[in-house]
Design goal:
53% of the residues lie in helices and 14% in strands. By secondary structure, the chain is of the alpha/beta class. Helix 1 (15-26) packs across helix 8 (231-243), helix 4 (101-122) packs parallel to helix 5 and helix 6 (187-200) runs antiparallel to helix 7 (204-224). The chain is globular, with a radius of gyration of 19 Å. The relative contact order is 0.13.
Length: 284
């Protein structure tokens, strides 16, 4: 049955998206791998079967989304889409006091508005019983210092997914959120490099104010990598959602994500701040 089911995955160039595309291809799904660069699509094709088709799509550009919708409609025909995996995302980091607003807008443009744009474009193509899977994060439950933009976008994604799940229930379309913890992908290293560059360009008094905190956050991030899970493990959960008869609303992946969910659920805010301050080693 999987050979007749088309799955669109955004942000499939690398990391979790690429792992999902290749894993679902191996399971027999007809994967439509959303990429922004043709070279990334060609690289995926070299590692996949003929069932996988790269599709150029930039979720922040309406023309690109519209062109992808037309291209995919020709591929799926009357069969439509069985699954939509909204994985495209970026991580902007830095102290909110000094973060350029254009960077904050870019964070939400990709992770939030891009997701909604794709849902609006492809929802009419989803068949009854189809699935929308939105890739969230442990940061969609707990916000750490310096990752406010990323966490904010994931908090928004969680809320939008809740509304969407209720709105689409009468249509027979399931909406699930996948919440991985730390994953062995380049996104966080790139984010920390960008943050270091940004801090270096700030006035001296701002650098002095946040230097020790930035160092603590970076040390904590590197330390947490020992608990990091592989993108393939997340891909396995995505496959589970596609196969489930009645998918759950949320899937927690990784021990750190599980801890984050417990912290939010059981600790009051003041105690939670104290625990996070101690765990990260923040200045007090």
């Amino acid at each position: 049955m999987t050979s007749t089911k088309h799955i669109l995955i955004t942000g499939a160039s690398s990391g979790i998206g690429a792992a999902c595309a290749l894993h679902l291809d191996r399971l027999g799904y007809r994967v439509l791998a959303g990429v922004r660069q043709e070279a990334d699509g060609a690289a995926l094709k070299e590692r996949s079967s003929d069932r996988l088709t790269p599709v150029n799509i930039d979720v922040t550009k309406s023309d690109s989304v519209a062109n992808a919708r037309e291209a995919i409609a020709e591929i799926t025909g009357d069969g439509g889409l069985f699954g939509l995996v909204n994985n495209a995302g970026i991580a902007v980091a830095g102290p909110l006091e000094a973060l350029p607003l254009d960077e904050l807008r870019r964070q939400f443009e990709v992770n939030v508005f891009g997701m909604i744009a794709v849902v609006q474009a492809f929802l009419p193509s989803l068949i009854r019983g189809g699935r929308i899977i939105n890739m969230s994060s442990a940061s969609g439950r707990v916000a750490f210092p310096f990752v406010g933009p990323y966490a904010g976008s994931k908090f928004a994604l969680e809320a939008l997914s809740d509304s969407l799940r209720l709105e689409l229930r009468p249509s027979g379309i399931f909406v699930s959120v996948v919440e991985p913890g730390m994953v062995t992908t380049p996104i966080w290293e790139r984010s920390m490099e960008t943050t270091r560059d940004m801090l270096a360009d700030l006035p001296g008094e701002i650098q002095d104010k946040y230097r020790s905190m930035a160092d603590a956050v970076e040390r904590a991030a590197k330390k947490s990598m020992r608990y990091a899970i592989s993108p393939e493990r997340v891909a396995g959960v995505v496959a589970m959602v596609l196969r489930a008869r009645r998918p759950r609303a949320r899937y927690i992946v990784g021990i750190d994500s599980m801890i984050a969910s417990r912290v939010v659920r059981f600790l009051p805010d003041r105690l939670r701040d104290w625990v996070l301050t101690r765990a990260i080693g923040l200045p007090r």
